[in-house]
Amino acid sequence: MQPFRVEECPVVVPRWEAPPAFDDYVRSRHAALLRFAHVLCGDPHLAGDLVQDALERTGLAWARLVAQDDPEGYVRRTIVNRYLGIWRRRRRERIVPSPPESSYEDVGPRDTWLWQLLSTLPRQQRAVVVLRFYEDLTMAEIADVLGCSLGTVKSNSSRALAKLRDALPEQLNLAERR
Amino acid sequence: MSLDEVLRAELHDPQLALPPWPDAVDRVKAGIRRRRRRRIVCQGAGLAVMVTIAIPLALRATDAGAAQSGTSGSPTPSASVSPTVRATAADCGSENLSAILMPGTNAGEFLLTATNTGAVRCTLLGSPDLITVSAGSAQVVPVVESPALGAANGEMPATIDPGEHAYATIGTSLTCHGGLNPATYANVAIAQFGAPVPATGSTLVTTCPVRVGPWYRLVQGG
């Protein structure tokens, strides 16, 4: 065989440089994405990891996503899917029967009882609730984000709301007593 | 307040906002670079496994098949030689060909070997058209024909007997576009013979258009 030479192949991996538009996107959107991820998973540290992971994947696929005109949808889908994937591998949040002793100021979000109630929902039901009431997506849009059928979304939504509704009066009474 | 309103109020509570990252862009960029390094290392490891294990096994299988048909069957071009110049025969068809894509001796170099698995002599004309096949869909690999590529000692067009091999040299490079966003072509197949002929073996990774040389048959002494 007659050897041939193609151009020298660089051994060092070329340094990746983000397009300026991607820098702007990260700068302007990461705070909103952090908040979305926090509402979704209920854990600020995990929210940071989810957003970091999603933005890295978005950066790698930036040219394609810009061509499809859908970077925001991709990031949010990635956050949701990674959240569901992580919780598939881990045990669900462990709910203790009574909250630890702490002052009211330490609790963080207002209406902590509802926040805790949300954390008792199975992850997919919680994702449906967040996408519906935080993102204001329609059932069809939620099905698209989660990659499942419309029927699955409807049943998850119905079960989640039923569970919350059952617990709500008791919690409201407790809140009123406080 | 209805449950819907309570939920909306809770989820839109400003206290749920997390502090923004002061170094958001640098942080994400650093993560992307780590990912790219990891990905390239994994691809390199996969290629190394392919070269050290899969290719020798595939070649051994090819040798065994050729030995059964009583012809010279080494996949290395230097062993498949013939002192005569052959007249062109009927075009080879996909049903009578198998192919393998192996790394060459230089970086970015690959050798595409087509073997005549039929019962009659046939001819491979021109240069191979390449496609990649994934999940039932095919995508054309952009190629640039390089007539002189790897054919200095070969006879063109390549007319091969049953069990013999024809070769085409493939050149890839990461020097274009600053080496950014390389295209990866896995599951390469040859598309010029009617139905695609899968070229098992290597994956092409390149930022430049893939260079393809013409089909040739090795002849002794050039």
Task: Tell me what you see in this structure.
The complex is a heterodimer of chains A (178) and B (222). Chain A has 8 helices and no strands. By secondary structure, chain A is mainly alpha-helical. The longest helix of chain A has 28 residues. Chain A is globular. Chain A starts with 19 loop residues before the first helix and ends with a helix. The N terminus of chain A is likely disordered. Chain B has 222 residues and is an alpha+beta fold. In chain B, β11 and β12 form a beta hairpin. The longest helix of chain B has 45 residues. The radius of gyration of chain B is 25 Å and the shape is elongated. Chains A and B meet through α1, α2, α5, α6 and α8 of A and α1, α2 and β9 of B.
Radius of gyration of chain B: 25 Å
Contiguous uncertain segments of 5+ residues of chain B:
70-76, 78-83
Radius of gyration from the alpha-carbon trace of chain A, in angstroms: 21 Å
What would you call the shape of chain A?
globular
Q: What fraction, in percent, of the residue positions of chain B are helical?
A: 10-25%
Largest interface: A-B, 50 and 59 residues
Overall structural class of chain B, as computed from helix and strand content, comes to alpha+beta
Number of strands of chain A: 0
How much β-strand is present in the residues of chain B? 25-35%
User: How would you state the average pLDDT of chain A, rounded?
Assistant: 78
Alpha-beta classification of chain A: mainly alpha
H/E element order of chain A? HHHHHHHH
Overall pLDDT level of chain B = 79
How many strand elements of chain B?
A: 15
Helix content of chain A: 55-70%
| Parts with pLDDT < 50 across at least 5 consecutive residues of chain A | 1-13, 100-110
